Amino acid sequence: MNTDFSNAERAQILVEALPYIEKYVGEVVVVKYGGNAMINEQLRQQVMEDIVLLQLIGVKVVLVHGGGPEISELMGKLGKKAEFVDGLRVTDKETVDIVQMVLAGKVNKTLVNLLEAKGGRAIGLSGLDGRLIECKMKDERLGYVGSVTKINIAPVTDLLEKGYIPVVSTIGCDSEGNTYNINGDTAAAYIAGALEAKRLLMLTDIAGVMMDKDDPNSLIRELSVIQAKELFDKGVISGGMIPKVECCITALKRGVRKAIIMDGRVPHSILMELLTDEGAGTMFV
Q1: pLDDT single digits (tens) 73-111
Q2: pLDDT < 70 stretches in the chain
Q3: Would 7 be classed as within a structural domain?
Q4: What is the CATH number of the domain that holds 179?
Q5: How far is CA 234 from the centre of its chain?
Q6: pLDDT on residue 124
Q7: CA distance to 51, 61, 102, 276, per residue, from 283 (Å)
Q8: What is the tally of structural domains in the chain?
Q9: Which residues face 202 on adjacent strands?
Q10: Which residues does 209 contact at the CB level (< 8 Å), separation at least 6?
Q11: For residue 156, how far is the Cα from the chain centroid?
């Protein structure tokens, strides 16, 4: 605990956070979690603390997670080389088994355990549970990579009503029972839309959308869907940022009130975004 603050200063911080707390009590916030914030142990602890604090003040938090680095690591141990097409992992039948093992098993249960250790109440789900994420094959070149066709949100809402944090791993199934690897950002956008969430927070490895990707000071704090499309056309939004922005736009079109791409490497960035004036990252409205 930081001892540089006096008790009066601590009290003042809490008072200033009160209007924000009131704004989010009883509301749904979906957090998409992956990348560096998941691998770095200290950051992972802080993300879990932020989520548990939000739960304790009455926010309904849903944690949707990826696990790309862990999947690649296990593939390497098993002698399989990771291949990507347009940023998506080529997933054959053996690889989809590895994806299910890592995401629905190791990563999901590790996060549930961490949240519980921090004082939260969490239960892990995969997109297979209650057919939460139904999908079809996205592209034959990619193999078992799914394109979302339907979200059956009842398993998530049931857990939220009972006071749990649902922790969702992004694998899906088709009508024949085949398992598919689903892009985590896409799954989070669809789940947030089905919940009509107040916020979708996409924790990434960059500060947000920048006019100049090499200049952190050029961060764009707020973007409308129309402005985002203009930045696509100008090439400002490019590379790995394209699918993330597209997912934010998808979320807004499906009923999410605001979506934010933010830097998960910043300590307690979730609390900064939700409970301060400053915010963190780029907000899509």
Answers
A1: 999 999 988 888 877 788 999 999 999 999 999 999 999
A2: 1-5, 35-37
A3: no
A4: 3.40.1160.10
A5: 27
A6: 97
A7: 19, 18, 31, 14
A8: 1
A9: 32, 261
A10: 219, 220, 223, 228, 231, 236, 237, 241, 245, 261, 282
A11: 15
Give me the domain span that covers residue 34.
24-284
pLDDT of residue 104: 94
Residue 263 lies in a domain: yes
Task: Look at the alpha carbons of 246, 132, 100, 52 in this order and tell me if their dihedral is positive or negative.
Answer: positive
17 within some domain: no
Four-point Cα dihedral 1, 277, 35, 33, nearest 10: 90
Is 16 domain-assigned? no
- Map tokens 């799954």 to a residue: 187
- Confidence (pLDDT) at 127: 96
Q: Which two tokens stand for residue 222?
A: 């707020």
What are the structure tokens assigned to 141, written together?
């070149």
Query: What is the CB-side half-sphere exposure of residue 253 using CA atoms within 13 A?
Result: 10
The per-residue pLDDT for 3 is 54
